[in-house]
Amino acid sequence: PQGSEKAKTFVHGFLKRSMPKMKDEAIQDMLTRKAVVLEHYPKKKTKQKRKKTKGFTAKQRRELRLFEIEPEQQRYAIFLPLHELWKQYIRDLCHGLKPDAQPHMTQGKLLKADLHGAIVTVTKSKCPSYVGITGIILQEFKHVFKIITKEDKLKVVPKLNNVFSLELDGFISYIYGSKFLLRASERSAKKFKLKGTIDL
């Protein structure tokens, strides 16, 4: 019938437009089988580049005084709760610091732990004035510790050429500052040699 011829012509034209890469013989073959699978060519999406959020430069941080502790906040008693939190954090990290725990395993975990809130003592130093300083670590930088003492004095103690002791639940650990010249965030990925050299 005439209507069927029009339909066939329409379908043939439609398939030709939809699948321009296909030859007429192949289209005719599809029509005889009455099974048509249309091809789809999706448009390539252009990926939008994410803008990196720029943080403050070191100069800007100094100008804004982001890391400075106000004089009225430099009181030992204020940071005692921080020390209690740190002790709980270390107990969880070292599974309770049990007496039967292997010392080198505990030492390895302490070397990678966050020390903000720990009470440390300078036991050896090339500069005698640093020996005996005890307090809570408020800030740790690559080269120095900022420590608040019981006398409410904020001390800036360099890591280089100093040995620090750290005591918790009867476990005493010694930190050789010269081998510890890293930021707190960098220590977690570093492998430490537990048998270090005494360089004082």
From TrEMBL:
- What GO MF terms are annotated? ribonuclease P RNA binding
Q: What does this protein do?
A: Component of ribonuclease P, a ribonucleoprotein complex that generates mature tRNA molecules by cleaving their 5'-ends.
Species of origin: Pomatostomus ruficeps
Mind listing the GO biological process terms from this record? rRNA processing; tRNA 5'-leader removal
Q: Which domain of life is it from?
A: Eukaryota
Tell me which InterPro entries the record gives.
Answer: RNase_P/MRP_Rpp29-subunit, RNase_P/MRP_Rpp29_sf, Rof/RNase_P-like, Rpp29/RNP1
GO CC term, one of those recorded: ribonuclease P complex
User: Which keywords does this chain's UniProt record carry?
Assistant: Nucleus, Phosphoprotein, tRNA processing
Family listed:
Belongs to the eukaryotic/archaeal RNase P protein component 1 family.
Assembly and partners are described as: Component of nuclear RNase P and RNase MRP ribonucleoproteins. RNase P consists of a catalytic RNA moiety and 10 different protein chains; POP1, POP4, POP5, POP7, RPP14, RPP21, RPP25, RPP30, RPP38 and RPP40. Within the RNase P complex, POP1, POP7 and RPP25 form the 'finger' subcomplex, POP5, RPP14, RPP40 and homodimeric RPP30 form the 'palm' subcomplex, and RPP21, POP4 and RPP38 form the 'wrist' subcomplex. All subunits of the RNase P complex interact with the catalytic RNA. Several subunits of RNase P are also part of the RNase MRP complex.
- Has UniProt tagged this entry with the keyword Secreted? no
Task: Using the UniProt record, give the first listed, main subcellular location.
Answer: nucleus
- Protein known as: Ribonuclease P protein subunit p29
Tell me if Oxidoreductase is a UniProt keyword of this record. Answer: no
Question: Where does the protein end up?
Answer: Nucleus, Nucleolus
